[in-house]
Design goal:
The protein has 107 residues and is mainly alpha-helical. The protein has 3 helices and 2 strands; from the N terminus they run E-E-H-H-H.
Length: 107
């Protein structure tokens, strides 16, 4: 809260009732990975889901229901393929991703 008063010249003056203190920061014990999801599994998932979604959208636009359902199936298949690749070590923290990071200097 601030106490305010109006001086004779029309200027508002005031003073703070509480003095700001210092803030203690809690940092994580170690830095998070720096790849930000740039892994083979993530890119594969993204591309396959994008292709399937585009095909599904085109199926709706042109009233081709078979294309819509095929696009939906491709998009869902992309999610499954991405998860399988992550389990196989191509995702964040996986052995293939860590090996690639060592070869390329961490990026």
């Amino acid at each position: 809260m601030v106490e305010q008063s109006l001086s004779s010249s029309g200027v508002v003056t005031g003073r703070a009732q509480q003095v700001p203190g210092t803030e203690t920061l809690r940092l994580p014990p170690k830095a998070p990975p720096t790849n930000h999801g740039h892994t083979t599994a993530a890119w594969t998932t993204t591309v396959v889901v994008l292709v399937g979604s585009t095909a599904g959208a085109l199926g709706l636009i042109f009233a081709l229901m078979w294309l819509f359902w095929a696009g939906l199936a491709v998009a869902l298949l992309g999610v499954v393929v991405g998860k399988v690749m992550q389990v196989l070590g191509y995702g964040q923290g996986g052995k293939h991703t860590l090996e690639k990071a060592r070869r390329t200097g961490g990026h």
